[in-house]
Amino acid sequence: MMRALTYAGRRGLALEWRVVGGIARRFFFASSTDHTRLLDEADVHRVTLVDGVTQYVMAPNGTDLEIVQKVPQLHLARLFVKDNVLYGAKVINRTLGEPKLVCGKILDAALQDVGIDKARARSTLHGLSDWVLDGMRIKKRVDSLSGLSDGELSAIEAIAKEPSTEKYDTSRMIWEKLAQEYIDRGCATEAALYQSREGVLTEIEHHADTSELANTSGGAMALFEFQ
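Below the sequence we write its predicted structure tokens.
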């Protein structure tokens, strides 16, 4: 059984939300394939959540707040703020591109609300572990792996495959350098978003990621300040 709800924004960028087998799925009509226009004209909504968290949501132009709150499948991108810390920037409709190309509008709104001089951003580093393993297996250039002893390489490989507190803590300085290189090479997509607004890396935080994807980065996250 399928139910369909068509929603057209003020500028005619049509979306269709279909419920197929009890699962909500979003489809863009051919008339909305101009992603640049969709992003340029998108609205930014602020949704107050529990525990003092504000969710910044990018939605198609003309989508009112009530629909944004009721139909999360219409979200284009999201970002969260608690106190002065920004986090969780994510592109929901992945066909639009990476966070750096999509989330700028919600990031700008959050920075304006918090104040650039006060704002901090905590970025995930998901994919770091696979990047490290690729560097070991296929000799893909990873400068931070150069000069490491066999024992150090073994410990790093173990962290990348299955993080453990004991192994991580004995090799955290090496993992920190790997994380910095991962960011410097533009591989960390959320970090690249913050850097696009002059975010400056100030710290690699250890055991900071508690999400279900924490094992893809050894649990490390990156902290940014803005200039």
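Strands lie at 2-8, 14-20, 23-28, 43-48, 53-59, 77-82, 85-91, 120-124, 199-205, 221-226.
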